């Protein structure tokens, strides 16, 4: 599934969801982008 290429995207999220993402990312020592990428990868993996 991974191509090795990184692409910048623009998404819209509920403010509460964004705050939860930021909190969890900080707790794990990740950037927001890294957290979203990790979470999405886990969600679409077989």
From TrEMBL:
Matching InterPro entries, A to Z? Arc_rbn_hlx_hlx, HicB-like, Ribbon_hlx_hlx
User: What SUPFAM superfamilies does the entry give?
Assistant: Ribbon-helix-helix
**Which source organism does the UniProt entry give?**
Hyphobacterium vulgare
Top-level division of the source organism's lineage: Bacteria
One Pfam family, short name: HicB_lk_antitox
- The protein's name in its UniProt record: Type II toxin-antitoxin system HicB family antitoxin
| Ranges for domain HicB-like antitoxin of toxin-antitoxin system | 4-40
């Amino acid at each position: 599934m991974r191509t090795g290429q990184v692409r910048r995207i623009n998404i819209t999220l509920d403010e509460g969801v964004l705050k939860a993402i930021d909190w969890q990312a900080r707790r794990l020592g990740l950037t927001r982008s890294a957290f979203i990428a990790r979470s999405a990868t886990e969600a679409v993996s077989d």
